Amino acid sequence: MALHFFIGLGALVSPLVVDPFLAEDSCVLSANWTANSSSSDLEHLRNTLAGHGSALHNTSQYPLYTEGIVITRVSYAFWIMAIINLPVPVAVLVLMFHERLVSCSKSSPPLLEKEPNISSSPARDDGQGHGGVFDCCRRNNLRGHPATFFIIHALGGAIVFITDGIIGCYAGFVYTYAVSPPLLMGHKTAGCLDSVFWASVTAGRLSFIFFSSRYTAPILLTISLAGVILVQCLLLIFYTSHVFLFIGTSVLGLSVSSVFPSILAFTEDILDYKGCATTVLVTSASTGEMALQLLVGSVINSKGSYSFLLCTTITSFISFCLFQLLLYTHRVHRNHQTGHSKLNCERRGSFG
């Protein structure tokens, strides 16, 4: 949970670092720009950037000068972020030198050979612990597992696919939704929504470090997923309220923030930490954040900005249903494991 807190913290800090270097108006001052210089093409591009339904309001606020004096200093923000991230690889290199993991001569063994060879130890036979990247896909490791073992992986991956996709969609399109009809929020005000969302995600992950030590993962996941559905339904109802959009953004960030770390802990607990669970969940989360943004962006482009909330609400309902199915599969898997353990004990007793 602490690692995911710092992910949210980085996403919160980055827009705040960039904001002072953004120009309030156009990034380029016009230099003898005439109306005959591809005005029709620029007008089409302006309407495209303004989004669906831009004909309902004045699009001249989006000047598209292509030649002139560049007045933005946004490159400074990238240099600042690079300098902030520089201590990380430096610290890793220092740690590697301290642990003598960096070969100083060609005769030194490579990094992976410095560790004891544990790939053939008996502890590896049950699929627990850390091994090769594709160890979990070997036939010997897959053999003997019940069907519920694979269903749990699939359901956990599907849940984080949707919830991390919701995070990516909301962070990516809430600005577009705010500046489009019927809200028509100011650009500076709408730009704060993304920071508010990531601030609530960061605060939610920090607070769930405390809650995770007192409540079980199923309880936290039930509250989080129910909260995501509830706040998005309210956003659909009060879709014309500027104030409630900020409130809903905050609550949504708090609700969805702990789903991934909680589902990761819950799934690994069910499977008694099988290495494949982490691989499947992390891959599914990254894929969902990519795929759902592409899907929702296409729907927004064809149906309008209101479909953005409708899409995320529908996917939230799907994720909650999948979580209920995961709880049922967990119960079946636990009963199977209990029955299998009793059968082994009876066999040992009969041979004893």
Automatic annotation (TrEMBL):
InterPro entries: MFS_trans_sf. It is a multi-pass membrane protein. Residues 107-128 are annotated as: Disordered. The chain crosses the membrane at residues 76-97, 148-175, 219-239, 245-266, 306-328. Gene3D superfamilies: MFS general substrate transporter like domains (1.20.1250.20). Residues 1-23 form the signal peptide. Keywords: Membrane, Signal, Transmembrane, Transmembrane helix. It is found in: Membrane. The keyword Magnesium does not apply. The keyword Transmembrane applies. Belongs to the major facilitator superfamily. This is Uncharacterized protein. It comes from Ameca splendens. The lineage of its organism: Eukaryota, Metazoa, Chordata, Craniata, Vertebrata.
